Amino acid sequence: MNLRIRGCVLWQRGAATPFAALVVAALFLAGCASAPFTDPLPSWNEGATKAAIIKLVQDTTRPGSPDFVPASERIATFDNDGTLWCEHPVYVEVLFTRDRILAGAAQNPAWRTQMPFKALIDNDQAEIAKLSGTDYFAMLAATHAGYTSAEVRKAAADWLAVTRHPRFNRLYTELVYQPMLEVLAYFRANGYKTFIVSGGTPEFIRSFAEKAYGIPPEQVIGTSFMASYTFDNNVALVRSDARVLLIDDGPGKAVAIDHYVGRVPIASFGNSDGDIAMLATATNSPASRERTRFAAFVWHTDAAREYAYDRDTSVGRLNQGLDLAPRLGWTLIDMKRDWKVVFPFEK
Amino acid sequence: MNLRIRGCVLWQRGAATPFAALVVAALFLAGCASAPFTDPLPSWNEGATKAAIIKLVQDTTRPGSPDFVPASERIATFDNDGTLWCEHPVYVEVLFTRDRILAGAAQNPAWRTQMPFKALIDNDQAEIAKLSGTDYFAMLAATHAGYTSAEVRKAAADWLAVTRHPRFNRLYTELVYQPMLEVLAYFRANGYKTFIVSGGTPEFIRSFAEKAYGIPPEQVIGTSFMASYTFDNNVALVRSDARVLLIDDGPGKAVAIDHYVGRVPIASFGNSDGDIAMLATATNSPASRERTRFAAFVWHTDAAREYAYDRDTSVGRLNQGLDLAPRLGWTLIDMKRDWKVVFPFEK
């Protein structure tokens, strides 16, 4: 589409000849001609999972299909941690937040005596092991309060540019799942808009999602804090504070999809019990009855290439979801069985 | 772009011949060739305002321009009431809300003795005249609480299909501004994403914005309420409650753009003091310094064709904004002077 837009602009401005437009047309024809021979999901092993994804996209985009979805209604929602990139042994944003707290300890002397910050500052492993979700959101809030979104994004981008995964010794942005990158691209090539709906914060995810996944900031939804606007010395600023706006996990993901997207997704992908409501929103909303819908869990079954975990982990636990999946017709993406490669660098 | 996509799909499925693709290519060439002779803003009188809008779009989309903006960063934000459609003599959603309260009075006996509902039910004009913004948000909350977004959208669509403006005797969706429809289309034809950032609710605006403006639900931001998720009998539902999530007016519009869009808009259009923070976000954010930005008020100067109001109205008051505009370089779109027609039916 860019080519065509670019072609039009060149022609309009008189900088190009009809020949340039013919070149564009030829490229266009070449693209059409080669399309049928291209596997949209080359990193997926042949099997029921790959076939189900391809069938969904074909059924929803083929004119005349009973499941045809107008382009404007093609929405697919994706969890981030454990669905699009590696979340073990610890959620990446938790590590970033820990480093923000350590870096900010000097400026926040109260943290030295205050849990959960004290546990991190003292590197008290026994206390760290006890930290709850509430503790995590308190840490997130503390590290966002007072900052603009641009400041947090810059800090996250700087951190992601140098911090490596303890096992793979790779940047975290290298530990995205190649098969899921292909799913994102395949959906988008067929007119779908792809959204991230994550328990992480938009500021953190927006710092890398456009480059890593091709997902623009306005399609990133996450756990968020309230903010305030100031206009001083002719500068407009919005700074977060510590009040929670939305905890985008569990039922919060269903609320978020309704609120931010305003449509029932055709497809939802997650990997943990925190994604159940998000998957159910795609398949079991009242509007879901109108036509086919799809939901899938990325099931972490590959200890050799990544990690194997489901019911017995505190990071990305998939327990109730494993029982619900067969009952609600959700697909289990068996990482070990379904994926030829896990990470892009394996190719 | 659709043509090209459709062309590709036909070719892939073996239903078309190379001839079909050549037809598509010919149409494409014809489109390019005719483009330079098309005025993108035919309902605008020639003058500084029209020239400024065209210059902005050209400067931000011409490759090599110092103000060139990559396609993914082309964001334009628009207020709705008074900027994209008629808001006088009363905001449309206020009238819808009043009718919802009257229709719901039997089911909500408490409303009969409780302000602000009592004033509406009794049609007490003296009390109605005294209703404040807080009263309005209380009415909005009460008419959303307990409903799904789909239910509110359906009610709004049904109401908009039959309710007419008291002066023009037209459906409200006929009272959109033709010149602004052209601005929306012109921006989008040049790769911009257009967002609504409104004091109204997303449910109400989403009920008509895609058809009336070409703006999809996921690009509609508004005053919003918290919601809760339930999953009973295999049905996933999200119902609003009466707690405010965001009042998307005044400083709330700057917070909303930061939160929902996650980028600084290249252009913002409003019409009242409630849009000042939204316009300042476009022109006076730290990121605004990187390249040209644009902000404009629709200035209601045409009592004959629409309404004339600015400093002395309680609906869409433009007072501080009139003083700020010259100081911050914002454009005043003088409806009487700049617009050839106001509404589509005048064409």
DSSP strand (E) fraction of chain A?
A: 5-15%
The overall pLDDT of chain A, averaged over residues, is: 90
Largest binding interface between chains: A-B, 77 and 77 residues
Order of helices and strands of chain A: HHHEHHHHHHEHHEEEHEHEEHEH
Count of alpha and pi helical runs of chain A: 15
Q: Can you tell me the overall shape of chain A?
A: globular
Kindly report the oligomeric state of this protein: homodimer
Structural class of chain A: alpha/beta
* Largest sheet entry of chain A: 7 strands, mixed
Low-confidence stretches of chain A: 1-35
Secondary structure: number of strands of chain A: 9
How much helix, percentage-wise, in residues of chain A? Answer: 40-55%
Give the termini distance of chain A in whole angstroms: 28 Å
The radius of gyration computed from the alpha-carbon positions of chain A, rounded to a whole number of angstroms, is 22 Å
Describe the structure.
2 copies of one chain form a homodimer. Chain A has 347 residues and is an alpha/beta fold. The first copy, chain A, contains 15 helices and 9 strands. In chain A, strands 1, 2, 3, 6, 7, 8 and 9 form a 7-stranded mixed beta sheet that branches. A two-stranded antiparallel ribbon of chain A has the order 4-5. Chain A is globular, with a radius of gyration of 22 Å. At the A-B interface, helix 1, helix 2, strand 4, strand 5 and helix 12 of A face helix 1, helix 2, strand 4, strand 5 and helix 12 of B.
